[in-house]
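Page 42, continued from yesterday. The earlier attempt failed because a stray header line got pasted into the input along with the sequence. Redoing it now with the clean sequence only.
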Amino acid sequence: MSLSRRAALLGFSSLLLSACVGPGSSFRTEYTPVPPVLASSWRLAEVQVTVPRSLKVSEAKTYLPAADIVWREDPMGDRYDQVGKIIQDAVLRGARGLSGSRPVIIAVTVTRFHALTFEAEQRFENAGVHNIKFTAQVVDARTGEVLVPPTAIRAELPAPSGKTMREARRKGQSQKSMITAHVAKTVAGWLGLGPDVRGSFSRQGN
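This time it went through. Structure tokens are written below.
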């Protein structure tokens, strides 16, 4: 193959990759904080997580699958259950500082869980987003009274890719550990149990 043809193919591949990732977009971690005077009286009794079966799952080995749920680190299986377990662990961690006397249930409904495919993680450099969205409400565990109505929460975070993620994996980190930690911090911020982590970033991704 001639040098000029190789260069042309390389340029075309780069163009395709750029098209798959898309232009830089704005992403954010966003929530409406629970008033401290309200949350200070709560004690966590239970976390209930729903991942609606109406959400579309993709197993496509592509850079940017068109789906609501994209998750690859767990073995092939029920992605709804796997995503539900990740979110439940994260919410439990984020809400563990609730130490009041009123037992509450935090009910979460996942609306989007779009992590990087392995193809994207391996090929991208400084691109990619873990796009996590859900609604959360708080109810009195004894009476069922709604204390906080369903509230939209965005917990989007830059997804390390390429050599950055390879180095992270060598240190024992994973997509799951990063997503869990960020969702936990988001929940803690929402409940006033930790720093306010709201903010936005611009990045090529989903």
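Notes: The first strand starts at residue 24 and ends at 30.
Reminder to self: strip header lines before submitting.
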